[in-house]
Amino acid sequence: MTAVDADRFRAVMAAVCAPVTIVTAVSADGHPCGATVSSFTSLSLDPPLVAVAFDRRSALLASVRGAGRFGVNLLGEGQDDLAVLFATRGADRFGGETAWFADDGLPRLRDAAGWVACDLDRTVEAGDHQLLFGRVTALGRAERPPLVYAHRTFGTHSRYAERPRPPITDLIAACAR
């Protein structure tokens, strides 16, 4: 088998547009914890499952496995600062600057574009990562463009505002402002 150069693999994968999420949990000592995760996807409709991948050394992975639950905050356009904060080692992620609240017993970030609460369904060993399957127990969304990451930069879907929407969506969005 031919080995693939790790730097080249990273460079090619950087071109893949990924959603930007912050996965959250409650630690064994009852404190909120979270980290930026771009390896997130929906997996199944019946039952409703999502998947996230964590580096095996992740402190958040240990908290999620211990709690058996996790939340996924789908970030929206303009929330780059949250993504960077939750990706920074040693940062006070749930300090005074981060607006959050408990939802379904999990830390949820205020103004995220979407929210998914999950029970840990199973884990799969995957190289230097673990793939976690979460059974969705609660969810919600806000009407805002998603934050995505590609080519080592943040952005959003370029035609998000132009997509067709049912008129009721416009009325709900206007009332929410």
TrEMBL record:
<dbReference type="Pfam" id="PF01613">
    <property type="entry name" value="Flavin_Reduct"/>
</dbReference>
<dbReference type="InterPro" id="IPR050268">
    <property type="entry name" value="NADH-dep_flavin_reductase"/>
</dbReference>
<dbReference type="GO" id="GO:0016491">
    <property type="term" value="F:oxidoreductase activity"/>
</dbReference>
<protein>
    <submittedName>
        <fullName>Flavin reductase family protein</fullName>
        <ecNumber>1.-.-.-</ecNumber>
    </submittedName>
</protein>
<feature type="domain" description="Flavin reductase like">
    <location>
        <begin position="13"/>
        <end position="156"/>
    </location>
</feature>
<keyword id="KW-0560">Oxidoreductase</keyword>
<dbReference type="InterPro" id="IPR012349">
    <property type="entry name" value="Split_barrel_FMN-bd"/>
</dbReference>
<dbReference type="InterPro" id="IPR002563">
    <property type="entry name" value="Flavin_Rdtase-like_dom"/>
</dbReference>
